[in-house]
Amino acid sequence: MKKIGVITDSHSGITQEQAKKLGIMVLPMPFYFDNECYYEDVDLSREEFFQKLGSCNEVATSQPSPADVMELWDKGLKDYGQIVYIPISSGLSGSCAAALAMAQEPPYKGKVFVVDNGRVSTALHRSVLDALELVAEGYTAPEIKEILEGSRDKMVIYVGVETLEHLKRGGRISPATAALGTVLNIKPVLKFDVGTLDTYKKCHGFSRARKTMIEAMKHDLETTFREWHKNGEAYLLAASSASKETTEGWLKEIQEAFPGMEVLSDHLSMGVSCHIGQGGLGIGCSCRPKRKAQGKAEN
Questions:
Q1: For residue range 45-95, what is the model confidence (pLDDT) as tens digits?
Q2: Residue 10's closest CA among 283, 277, 272, 211?
Q3: What pTM was computed for the model?
Q4: CA-to-CA distance for 66 and 102, rounded, in angstroms?
Q5: 206 contacts 163 by C-beta, under 8 angstroms
């Protein structure tokens, strides 16, 4: 039996096919179109998802059932002695808190370690890669949880929204604000920081929103994450709910703005896209977690 396995959920943007290649497991998250339940990367293609997103009257996300979570944990524990489970941020979903509670009960206590490090989308994907590196370096499951949670604030994501309709549906903006914003061609840039999602800036036009996100990321790398950036330990991230052509253009724009930096890019998960809508673009970074040796933290 292998020592430590890694499990995440589909809000990471990691597909079932990618999960097999990484040697991890991904919990498909549920969402609803007109009260009918679907599971990410299981029941719908992305094309079908966006068709429904544009035509359905009611769209909602949901927590996974405890039974679904425990079923995946049980499957993982057949192959591994312990599991590191990295779900969506507790600031965005109650599923993390539910998992933390379940992990304290038999038969999971001491076997499943739930990480709440405030991640979603490609930043959550990056945390999975960090966890796999830590496993390979010989850290224990409790140490991996501590190290990942210790880097909770070493991450930021900016997301530009093409349409205000889905923010209105989700109750993040009022119908009046959405209507006025549409008339004035206002495109908000959202900032995801330490587990919460807030409005960063309101831009006139999506081209301005893209420039704003690039400028914000440059500023963060020069200030907040300067130490990690200088040491080559700031990982650049990108995410998209836009078309293939728009996504490719966005990646090119990022690469030109940050020459020499690799970019980890994913589709925005369907669960996140329920709130963002089609055409969303994101950029962010996540820093390499500081290791611990003989009770002391080190780079």
A1: 888 888 888 777 688 888 999 999 999 999 999 999 999 999 998 888 889
A2: 272
A3: 0.90
A4: 8
A5: no
